[in-house]
Predict the 3D structure of the following.
Amino acid sequence: MSGVGFVGLGQIGGPMAARWTSWPDGLTVFDVHAPATEPFAEKGAHVASSPAEVAARATVISIMVRDDVQVTEVLTGTDGILSAARPGTVVAIHSTVEADTPARLAALAAEHGVDVVDAPVSGGFMGAHAGTLALMVGGSDEAVAKVQEPFALLGTLVAHLGPIGAGTRAKLARNLITFASMAAVGEASRLAEAAGVDLAKLGEVVRHSDKVTGGAGSTMLRRTTGPLDPSDGLQPIFTHTRGLGEKDLQLALALGHEVGVELPFAHLALQQLGDALGVPHTPDPT
């Protein structure tokens, strides 16, 4: 076992790093905003003056900064991690970056004998505090094995999704679900408001039912996006779901017409629901 390090102590990185304050061989932290490091110093962590100093003291180092530019600077800058990292060090990129960034940085790190894994997270501020995040990890089997123990303190799901870059690609797809769903919620809220529904109470219903059903993610049970084979046990279930969904979407569109609310997401969902579930409508042979 050896020391761990964390660079970037913001809204998510701070509570993630706090999960490592009791690491047996010590935690070293760095943030350009000095006050962010003060709670860590109080708990016995070493506060570094640069990412290079983090690398001098730790062999597993997490990065949670804003964007590609900052990740690149933390890793490759004059006082960056690679200027001081020992061979065998593993650097984990938790920031959400461009799809090709992890592989680009991994190639640079390999010249120093350093491994890079990309490990973006899902679960938000609450999951970071509770240690219940999901970590989507891309990297070699050897590198991922080295981070399993410290990552287990950060989340209750550590999913090794493939080679370097796989974690970031998964995070981009996962966030598409999140933010497209938020936009759809906006459309549904406009419909409900125009129809005289109490939005706050409707929100309670949505959150309650999603806890029970799992929400949209509950349909992500397939290993391919192609049409389901008729022998697949999901095929009749999703065909039934498609029928219910199309009926309800048509009813929502009718209500939108009645109250004068445009529903582009509902139109798109009606067109694409069957394909999304893997049970497209059979084309009319005529």
